[in-house]
Specification:
Layout: H1 2-8, H2 48-64, H3 75-100, H4 105-123
């Protein structure tokens, strides 16, 4: 009888699917978080300063009435973002031009490295 009751119970379901072994990143600055143990809550921020900046942003958004997923950038930040996007586009155009001109593999590899570097720089919005 007891065995039938145990079989009738559903198997535990993981509510939030997570990729085991996948690196986690700070919710504010995007830096990679150190691997933690299996005890306690997972870290969301790399340090107290990032945690504080995230709190300040949340409370400012609540006071302003903006949607929670809104991103607010200063004029300087927008200009810098546009400059980095322009650099990325130029790097991509350089590869197309080099390929059309019959560039060798080493030159194309160097240009591809430039694009990867520009894209990585562009990921850092803060």
């Amino acid at each position: 009888m007891r065995e039938a009751a145990e079989l009738a119970q559903p198997a535990p379901v993981e509510l939030v699917p997570g990729r085991r072994g996948a690196p986690r990143h700070c919710g504010w600055c995007g830096r990679r978080l150190p691997e933690g143990g299996n005890v306690g809550r997972r870290r969301r921020y790399c340090g107290q300063s990032c945690r504080q900046r995230a709190y300040e942003r949340r409370t400012a958004l609540q006071r302003s009435g903006l949607p929670e997923d809104a991103v607010v950038l200063s004029d300087t930040e927008v200009a810098a973002l546009q400059d980095r996007l322009f650099q990325l586009r130029c790097a991509a155009e350089d590869i197309v031009t080099a390929a059309d001109d019959g560039a060798d593999v080493r030159e194309l590899r160097g240009l591809a490295d430039d694009i990867a570097r520009a894209a990585k720089d562009l990921e850092q919005l803060r």
